[in-house]
Amino acid sequence: MKKKRNLTPLLLTAVLLATCLAASACAVKGYYLTAGIALLATAGCVWSIYSFLNRSSCRMKQFIRAVRYSEFPDAFDPHDTRGIAPELINEMQTALSAYRNDLQKRESRLQYFRALAEHVDTAILVYTSDGSLEWMNRSATRLVSSAIDENRPETNALRAPKTIADLRYLHPDLPERLRQLTPGQLDIVQIDHRQEEPTQLALSGMTFVLQGHRLRVASLKNIYSALNSQETESWQKLLRVLTHEMMNSLTPIISLAELLDTQIEQWEGPTGDKADMRQMLQTIARRGKSLTHFVNSYREITHLPLPQLQLHNAADLLNDIARLMQASVSIRSVNPSVPLKLIADKGQIEQVLINLVKNAVENNARHITLSAGVTTGGRPYLRCEDDGTGIEPDVLQHIFVPFFTTKPNGSGIGLTLARQIMHLHRGSIDAQSASGKGSTFTLLFPYP
Q1: Which residue has better confidence, 424 or 239?
Q2: Which terminus of the chain faces fewer neighbouring Cβ atoms within 10 Å, N or C?
Q3: Do residues 392 and 435 touch, judged by C-beta distance below 8 A?
Q4: Are residue 76 and residue 46 in the same domain, yes or no?
Q5: Is residue 1 over pLDDT 60?
């Protein structure tokens, strides 16, 4: 079936030629009135052609505007043939429909990838070669905001950083590290601040060109929790092996010592030697039982029950600990300004806080403060601060290691157990201390 063609331009052109010829012929023969009428008709044809071209121009401008600004009006009616051919209207409408569908697909894909980038737990920064920040995802915003310090007004630049130079308040070397970051390179940045857990950032990057502009993408992955979890699991595996092997060796030693102790009376020999041998066997059995008790205490770390998570009020939890331990030391709880809920195993978290308070008392603390709140990055925390003797820097880095203790009668299990409990809560425990200035332990819980 042939397409219907618009004959308006052809008819107007034919009429224009006919009126021009008629006007010329009438003027030559002296029919001036008829010639004037023909000239008027010619002018009308010229006006009609001008109007047709003007309407066509308007339609084309409308089409170009729709493509340029992604506006899709319903003005291209195939039945409206004023100023433009129907087949051209159909082609324009088809082109706009195809363009609109393609644009919607691209927009949907863009929204999909943007949602993915916003929800990953890796901080992502996009910046130009001169250091201007183009975009950063939610994790990056949370990471940057965690370094805001109300006592340092200059850190407010981290609320809405414009360039990577503003990130110097997160870490002084970070802007330069980002400038020198090359594709395939991996860099590590250690960030320590009071409110959040120590942050160990693994930096990697790539470059790409978008509309003639070279952009850099940097990913900042906090590997501290992963390394912490891996270290905890490694200690657990080691302790399982050690306790198993030690128990396998101690049990027969104790049994043999007790058996020999009962049979020593049947031995024919000097009475003095018999008494000495009995004493040695009893010593072996006693020390074996002590070692068995020692080993069993470390089994608690590797066989902790999974936490029974429930919603608890942080203020009630702190107040309970303060009332329980107030006989041992001057202790007070500072409740958060707004109600704070924690998803935790109350019994396990109370045990952690009790151990922290006991450690503070053993370190000659006179005043202990328990507090709760939310970090600038949005993570709930519980904190135990004391004014005790503090911890030396070379000791501080080992306090969570199993078996490590500086106390004459200590077992080195308290803080290891606390770390394991927080690991099971998908959180962490961090310590800050200075010799002679007391210590601060912070229990960080997952994002709600």
Answers
A1: 424
A2: N
A3: yes
A4: yes
A5: no
